Structure formats: C-alpha cells, structure tokens
Amino acid sequence: MKYNIWVRAATLLWSLSITAAQDAPAPYMQVPSQRQLEWQQQELYAFLHFGPNTFTGEEWGRSQSRPDIFNPTDLDTDQWAKVLAEAGMKGMILTAKHHDGTCLWNTSTTAYKTGNGSWAKKREQDGFDADVVRMAAGSAKKYGINFGVYLSPWDIHRDPAMPKPGLKGTIYDEPQIFGDSSPGDYNALYVQQLTELVTMKLADGTPIELFEVWLDGASGSDTVQTFNWTGFRDVIRQHQPNAVMWGHQGPDARWVGNEDGFTLPTNWHTISRTQDDVHYSGEELEVGVRDGQYWTPAESDARIRDGWFYHANEPSKSGAALMDMYLKTVGRSVNLLLDVPPDTRGLIADMDAANLKEFARLRNATLNRNLVTPDLKTSASSVRDGDIVSYGPAKVIDGSNDTYWTMDDGELTGWMEVDLGSSFCVDGFIVQEHIAFGQRIGRYEIGAMVEGSTYRAVVSNGTSMGYKRIDLLEKGVETSRIRLRITQANAVPLIQSLQVLGSRNCTGPL
Ligand SMILES: *[C@@H]1O[C@H](CO)[C@@H](O)[C@H](O)[C@H]1NC(C)=O
Ligand SMILES: *[C@@H]1O[C@H](CO)[C@@H](O)[C@H](O)[C@H]1NC(C)=O
Ligand SMILES: *[C@@H]1O[C@H](CO)[C@@H](O)[C@H](O)[C@H]1NC(C)=O
Ligand SMILES: *[C@@H]1O[C@H](CO)[C@@H](O)[C@H](O)[C@H]1NC(C)=O
Ligand SMILES: *[C@@H]1O[C@H](CO)[C@@H](O)[C@H](O)[C@H]1NC(C)=O
Ligand SMILES: *[C@@H]1O[C@H](CO)[C@@H](O)[C@H](O)[C@H]1NC(C)=O
Ligand SMILES: *[C@@H]1O[C@H](CO)[C@@H](O)[C@H](O)[C@H]1NC(C)=O
Q1: What confidence tens digit (pLDDT) does each residue in 103-157 have?
Q2: How far apart are CA 368 and CA 143, in angstroms?
Q3: How far is the CA of 367 from the centre of ligand 5 (A)?
Q4: Cβ(396)–Cβ(497) under 8 Å?
Q5: What pairs with residue 48 in β-bridges?
Q6: In this structure, which CATH number among 2.60.40.150, 3.20.20.80, 3.30.470.30, 3.90.1800.10 belongs to the domain 34-367?
Q7: Ligand 7 pocket check for 422: Cβ under 6 Å
Q8: Sign of the CA dihedral running 487, 488, 493, 497
Q9: Which CATH class is domain 377-503?
C-alpha cells in the first residue's frame, strides 16, 4: 500500500516535470493578430494606380475631367493578374478611388464614376462587365492572388478648397461636403463607399474577399477633415474580418515613412501611437518603437516607375534595382507593395512586365539556394528544460512555421549551430524569429567555421530580427558549419528558421 502511494507520487512528480518541460514560452508584450500574421507572410504584392490620371498624365489630378476621359483601348484585368502571379507577387491593391474622387466601381454614392463614361456604356452595350473593381477582383481570383482596395480619404471632388470650374453646371458638380466646417457629413459618404466595396460580389454572386484596405494619409489642401477611423475600421472588420487596414500609423499596418522602397536596418513591428494621435516622422516610422504599445508592422509602398500613375515617358526600374529594393524591405521584415500602373491600353506595360519577370528570376536565383535540409545535425548552447523534441535546434531547420528553438525563460543570449555535412561556399542567410509570440531579439551574429575549428563572424551587426532578415555576404566563405548567436534579447529568444544560402564551392558560378 505504502509502496503504491510512493510510486504514484513519483509518477505524479515525473508527469509534472514533463508538463513543465512542454510549456511554451508565454507571449512577449504585443503579438500579431492572425490577420496580421497571414498578411506578413504575403511579403510582396502590387499596387495598381489606374483612373483618369492615367489619361491626363497627372498624379493627383484636379477633379476636372468628366468620366469620358477614362478610355482604355484594350483593358484586360486578366493580363494584370497573370503578369503579377507569374512574377511571384501575392496580390494586388487597386485604386478604387484616388484623390481626384472618380470611382472605378459602380457606386451609388456619386455620378463621378468611370461607369458613367462612354467607355463603360459601350462595354455594357456589347454585353461585357464595365465595373473595373469587380473585373480586377475576378481576375485576381482566377489567377490565385489576393485582392485589396485603396479608397482615398482625401477627396478633391468634394473639397471646397479645390476649385473645379471644369465640372461647373454638369451633373458632376456635387455637394462640397469635405471638411469639418463644410455642410454635410463626409465621413458618412466615405463609410457608404467603404461599405459598397467591402460587401461587393463578383459577377457570379460570390463575395469578394479583401486582404488589405489602403487608407492613404496624403492631402494636398488645408481643409481640415477629422476622419472617423474607428467607424471606418468597424465597417472593414464587420464585413472583411481578414482584411488588414493600412493607415499612416495603423491600426493593422503602418507606412514605412518613405516611398522609395527601403527602410533602415533596424525595424520594430511595434509602435506606440494610433491613427488618432500626432503623426510620427518618416524615420520614426522606419524604425518603429521597440516594445511599443501596438503591433503595427510596416509596409513599404514603392514604384516600378517614377510616378504612381502610368506616364509613357518614365523609365521602368530594372530587375536588379527591384531586387535591391526587396532586400531593403522584405529582407528587413517589411512588406513590399510595388506600384505597377496599367497604361492607357489598360494593360501592364511590356517593359514593366519584363522587369518584373527578371526581378522574379533574380529572387529565385539568389534566395532559392538553401543548403540546409531537415536531416542535418544541429546543436545549441541550451534547450528549454532540456526538451530537445519540442524546443531543440532541429526545430530551426524543420521547415515548419509553428516550431522554434528556444531556451529557459530568462536566458536572453545563446547560440545554435548547424553542420552542413560537407564544405560549401556560403554567401547568405535568411533568419526568422517566431513573431507569433512577439518580437524579442535586438542583436544577433552569424559565424562560419573556418580552418576547421574557429568561428568567424560573417554577419556581426544583426539588429531587430523580427519576421524575416536576409543577410547577403559580399563574398562567399568556404565552410561546413554555421552558428547563429543571439547576443541581445528582451525575453527568451524564439528562432523559427535559419536558411543558409550558397553553392558547392567558391570557384563555380554563383
Ligand atoms: C509559412 O510561411 C510562409 C511564408 O514565410 C508561407 O508561404 C507558408 O504558407 C507558411 N506555411 C504555413 C503552413 O503556414
Ligand atoms: C451617373 O450615375 C448616376 C447614379 O449613380 C445617375 O443618376 C446619372 O444619371 C448618371 N449620369 C450619366 C451621365 O450617366
Ligand atoms: C451600374 O448599376 C446600374 C444600376 O444597377 C446599372 O443600370 C448599370 O448598368 C451599372 N453600370 C455598370 C458600369 O456596371
Ligand atoms: C464614427 O462611426 C461610428 C460607427 O459608424 C459611430 O458610431 C460614431 O458616432 C462615429 N463617430 C463620430 C465622431 O462621428
Ligand atoms: C529557381 O532556381 C533554381 C536553382 O536555384 C532552379 O533550379 C529553378 O529552375 C529556378 N526556378 C525558376 C522558376 O526560375
Ligand atoms: C551590416 O553591415 C552590412 C555591410 O556594411 C550592411 O549591408 C547591413 O545593412 C548592416 N546591417 C545592419 C543590421 O546594420
Ligand atoms: C567547383 O564547382 C564547379 C562548378 O560547379 C566545378 O566545375 C568545379 O570542379 C568545382 N571545384 C572544386 C574544387 O570542387
């Protein structure tokens, strides 16, 4: 009897210690929502600026043209989606309404829409859909990429500070309700437009799913309009719970502080202000706030040409220039939203399509060379409760987004190592922190074993790791073992993935 009790007590103790060993680390401060996590994994997608400005050569427009100005000769939204999908882009965001106020979908909120122009009338007569937003959404679905919309909060068409003599006396001369001191409620109009977009259906009746809604912060007039961000957010959440709402500083994703396709090497996913607070400066947005109050990761909106809208005389960036952008955005944990504007035919320009293709080839040729396979030998300075099965260093190379190597709570520095099995020419690394449980790491280094026994730091200045870091070396190094060291963290670090890029030897072609 006594013996039995003793055995049971021992079993209990043993199972308690197993349970303790299996406890995952607690989330650290702010963590991403599921929608933010899925959005972060999209990494690279396109911005399509299309509308009257495409035909007038303007960027912001002045809301002077009638809808007839919108007259693409060969509009084919399938071509957009095909070109983007083939270039490995995960989605497209279309300007449903830019600053000039022309709506590209068949809204009931204004007469100022492409659907009222002769292009749309002719298309409808011929039995084709003429709702550009719906057409683009259908094409995105057909080619398996995400779809999102841009709806400009600033609206020149409704802004009394922006004179519109060109529309005087036409049905397009509509009430000037933009501004806190103007008569009428612009927020109500905006909510109605937003509601139409988030509840839109494809021609066959299936709902259109949005992955992102882009609410621009730009304004070119002094008219003060207090936007009802909470109201806008509620409409989006109610109808599109998976859509990320982008604004200058959130709520779901923030501006990266510039429009040039780069960010500073240190980038935190958190900030401590909302859309209702004073705006951060560019550099504050680039860096973010470590241990900030809100999970508001950055997105870099950049352009393949000089302008946002298509202008024939502007050069298109080369694949190499786009690759450089990619490394300075996606390679620094920031999503890249690349503007690829349809031309006056209503097609992605041939030169842009060719450059996107070369960009895709370069990404693949540079990054798709992981030398690490799940069967390789790994070791670590320590493992959480010694539980190698759950938290060992092999979790870093198992290809799963849900597993990670970690140590005991309170252990803020440490290393893990992977043995490549034989000698390779290593020239780059891709590392990922398990951000589902928050961002913790402030400094890291990567060493390569050279001359048999010593580690040489080949990446010595890693800072905020976050979702994904790409570190490329200027010159390959011959090595068979790689060591990742976490040298600063604010809570026990969680390493989700390490990829080691390289080729067989340093004399062969890269
Ligand atoms: C893991 O993350 C990658 C992006 O980094 C994504 O493409 C993939 O779908 C994710 N896998 C799972 C199972 O979620
Ligand atoms: C434009 O659309 C509005 C309703 O959205 C309609 O009342 C108006 O007659 C249309 N105008 C033209 C010129 O088609
Ligand atoms: C817009 O909607 C109206 C009313 O449902 C319809 O008559 C018209 O054909 C539509 N126009 C376009 C461009 O879809
Ligand atoms: C903002 O919109 C919400 C929801 O539509 C509404 O309840 C609230 O009164 C609005 N706030 C202001 C200041 O207009
Ligand atoms: C990607 O690169 C690998 C080699 O790194 C190559 O085998 C493959 O064909 C490339 N794929 C594409 C689509 O370029
Ligand atoms: C580390 O140094 C390299 C080479 O100077 C540079 O390209 C990289 O951006 C630096 N990284 C950080 C995180 O500062
Ligand atoms: C290095 O790689 C190239 C091309 O893959 C091959 O031709 C050459 O024989 C290799 N050299 C050595 C020393 O392994």
Answers
A1: 999 999 999 999 999 999 999 999 999 999 999 999 999 999 999 999 999 999 9
A2: 23
A3: 10
A4: yes
A5: 94
A6: 3.20.20.80
A7: no
A8: negative
A9: mainly beta
